[in-house]
Amino acid sequence: MITHILDIPVEKLTTDYVRIENLKQYLFNVEMINPKDQGRYIPYWRDLKQIVIEGMWGQESSGYRFMFGDLFFYGNFCVIQRTNAAKITEPIKPLVRDLDWELSYGLSVAGGFSGFSEDEQFTSDSLVMDYKKNGIPDTVHEELKIRHLMLFNSKGQLKEYIDPLAYLKKAHRKPLGKALWYNHACNFSILGSRGGGKSYFASLGKGLHAIVTDGARYYSNLDGKYYKDPLYKEEYSQPIAEIMVGSGNSGQSSEFANKIQFAMNQFATNSKLGVWGKEGDDGYTPMPFFKQMTGSIGPNNKENPWRHEYSVINKGREIKKGSKSKLYHVSYFEGKAQGKGSQAGAGGRVLYSFTEESGLTGNSIEVHNSNKFVVSRDGIQFGVQIDLGTSGNIESVQQTKKKFMNPYDYDILPYKDPEELGQNGHIGFFLPFYITLNFCKDEDGNTIYELAFAETLKNREKAAKSTDPSVLRDEKMNAPILPSEMWISSKGYYLPYDEAVLRQKVLSKNGKFMDIGTPVKLTWDTTQPYGVKVEPETDLQPYYNFPIESDRTTKEAPVVIYTMPEFIRGEIPQGMYFSAYDPYVSDNLEDGGSLGTTFIILDPLYWEDYLTDEGPIVASYTAKHAGGLDGYHEVQEKLLALYGNQDNAHYYEKNRGRSCRDYYIKKGKACLLGLQPGTYDSSSSIAKRITEYGISVSNGRQKIQMLDEASDWLKSEVITKNGDIKRIIEIISCKFTVDQIVDFNMDKSSNYDAVSALILIPTIIKEREFYITEKITNKNKSNPLKFLTNNERLWSHRN
Length: 799
Hints:
alpha+beta, Rossmann fold, elongated
């Protein structure tokens, strides 16, 4: 029995997917009935259409299970393309697997599923919780009357609430009638392994199904009419479904749309689906689900969408017929001017908005925010935004990752995160590699986990034998079994990527990064030590995540304190702290994405007694100030004061730091500025007097060398004051910095402000070590032991 897949225990892997018995009861072959035989043909197809719209109940050993109409439609009427063993592409019906049941159930909950009409005990309607909390209202609005009635059993008692997803996945003691759809809709994110077939179910099971059914929820097979509710009180004249398909890469969305078009055309040509005869023959009849479509299915088709519309001649006049259900195809390409790519879907109202290969849509959050209004009407969401993506697109996936990892912030249906790194322990729907392996399924489409785990282990063991570590990295990224493996990068990197990913997990779990540091407001106050008052900051939000949230309303941010300054005999010793600063250039708040980043670092001389698990970076300030560079530098000046106004300890990137130099000279505090490295020459015991400040950083070999030194520093081991041995990367508390280390790429145009400040630190430490050595040597030439009496760290434990 397999217990581990390399270093991952199998008990950490998700296996609680729905399990199906007797799949054959849900699948069938179409009976060929001559359309001229109206007495059999019409009732037969009306019954099937009712199931396609309303779903059906099946019986298993443990009870009854509900199959939604979308999955029934997908498994029985849709056609996909497969390349067989002979390398021939052929149309086939898709398999109906546990994965497809999970997607059908999840997307139905996202669509507003709220329970079953004939359940006397349970409901999934969120309104019942409001009733139990606030009481049952005396009167209800006319539009809520049927919903209101469905909350009560036949005895007039309120039903018990049950989570809709758990409700669907359980077996029931009897068929419970029709599905109800009273909850507000939410969004759905599917990310994971390649080759899972998620795009086929989304495009055909949801997209094509919506067009074929015109988005109807209920149907009468007696009169062929559509109804608004399960009690058949009010009918629709003709429902209309509009769907939208888009991507940052129109090639990906075109493939998605073409799947829909191909399957629709099968309804006019494939005899196995109920097509009678051949086109051109007498009596030729497409199967009843076929819709004659017109318009373009290509990108940017808003003026001429792919729609159900056809012409008939009535008394010599051409009349347009058809339900007008349609597909819009948009492009979210980031290169469009003035953000028009992200707003490409604005203006319509759609039942489903699909973003194919969302990981390649770099403006995914902007698209999401724009399309909120596309799936809502009168402030109520009725449609579903559906993200589909595969891991391996790490260079562009960051915005999609943020949505996936924070489902509550983006109103995405939450699933339990096996690693508990997502928001409140939840993420979007993760598709692990082992659940996609069709040859590891039983006859009912259920995953045989021992076989699936064995295949996964075999692939990883093979990859692990390679002398190139990127082979295993690519295997994990393209065939992930845990959500965090989706974000692995195969790019070359200079900083300790794997270690940073582990630290990222620790900081992300249960939102630890928000608890480990305190956002503060600094105010000049002469009554306080070093003249600075510290108060909690409640108005400004720190930069926690990288890439930066596109929906931030301000580039201002507070100082974050990880460890308050240490006082020894009432003072902060000179030499205890130093600072590293990466400046931004422009005073214009809206000019570019560059921010200023300042770190306060505990000097290594004091680590043995004062280094905590919060790490050597004791405070950080990343922002762009509304008051321009002077405004930023004033906050920075207060921060330097808070940590003792350390002499010659404020180092900055010289190439962009002239404004920093000028500010402190103007303030009469040039003594705080760190001198340019090389001021002190090891060949001489006398310091050279110069007035150059800052550290020069070129974009060539020097920067690579500094990155290498920063990497070595981050991976170096230290002993904390508690005696714990840690690597520095394991105790970096600033998640924004860790995120930038994970994402860092010298070839990208992104502004890695925190990394730019970070790589100054090893150079500063080397310079300070030499500076202190030279200073002590010169000061104590007359008495070689005199320096011991001034060493605050050595004498801080005296009784």
